[in-house]
Design a protein that fits this description.
The protein has a single domain, classed as Uracil-DNA Glycosylase, subunit E (3-Layer(aba) Sandwich). By secondary structure, the chain is of the alpha/beta class. Helices cover 38% and strands 11% of the residues. The N and C termini lie far apart (35 Å). Helix 4 packs across helix 8 and helix 5 crosses helix 6. The protein is globular, with a radius of gyration of 17 Å. The chain contains eight helices and six strands, in the order H-H-E-E-H-H-E-H-E-H-E-E-H-H.
């Protein structure tokens, strides 16, 4: 799939970013020290751009790269259990050509779907600070501007969901009176856009049963249905 001109420019700015000293130190420390099972691999160790179909109607906003997942492989949700859950669900819903993602050259192609994150660097304890999220927001705003066909936004986890809402509001595309509530499967509609909240497919959620495969499947089957309908459900729904 040929990348549009905006993608190359944005990717370069993301990869070169050193705006958050704490995150720079952590991502580079992890990439140098590694873990035993990946000791022979060269880690990416830099910020990670979003990826997917530039004509996508579905946008997925996660939290941040995993220290030994995306920070190692250089692609969002690639090389860890969270990604295994996500791409299996996307494949089943028709958004991906395969249900696994091991490394950047594994042949994965997203269809009608683009994946990004609230923070582009792996944070200590998976917790970027509010200031770090704010400094990273311009990258998300630039993607929102470029991804003109998006009508459905899935926020993975409360931080991903709220980052997506705040960025779309800052871009002038949506507005609300009361703050939209997070809850797994809950939808919020704003004109031509529908936002779906989902628990993050982290091991903390999947190992404990807080998030099950059927729960995640329902999120993306709904996303596919809404994308086909132009992002206009009959009203907010909770699930």
């Amino acid at each position: 799939m040929a990348h549009p001109r905006w993608k190359a420019g944005l990717d370069g700015r993301v990869i070169a970013c050193r705006a958050c000293p704490r995150l720079v130190r952590w991502r580079e420390k992890v990439a140098t020290e590694k873990v035993r099972r990946y000791a022979d691999e060269e880690y990416w160790g830099k910020p990670i751009p979003g990826f997917g179909d530039p004509g996508a109607r579905l946008l997925i906003v996660g939290l941040a790269p995993a220290a030994h997942g995306g920070n190692r492989t250089g692609r969002m949700f690639t090389g860890d259990e969270s990604g295994n859950w996500l791409f299996r669900a996307l494949h089943d819903a028709g958004f991906a050509n395969q249900g696994v993602s091991a490394h950047r050259g594994d042949g994965l192609v997203l269809r009608d779907c683009y994946i990004t994150a609230a923070a582009r660097c792996a944070p200590p304890a998976n917790k970027p600070s509010p200031a770090e999220l704010k400094r990273c927001r311009p990258h998300l705003l630039e993607e929102i501007t470029a991804l003109k066909n998006v009508r459905v936004v899935v926020g993975l986890g409360r931080i991903g969901f709220e980052a997506a809402l705040q960025a779309y509001r800052a871009s002038g595309r949506i507005a609300w009176g009361g703050k939209p509530e997070f809850g797994h499967g809950r939808t919020h509609s704003f004109g031509n856009y529908t936002f779906i909240a989902s628990y993050h497919p982290s091991q903390q959620n999947t190992f404990t049963g807080r998030l099950t495969r059927p729960m995640l499947d329902r999120v993306f089957s709904l996303a596919a249905e809404l994308a086909e309908a132009g992002g206009r459900p009959p009203g907010d729904r909770a699930g």
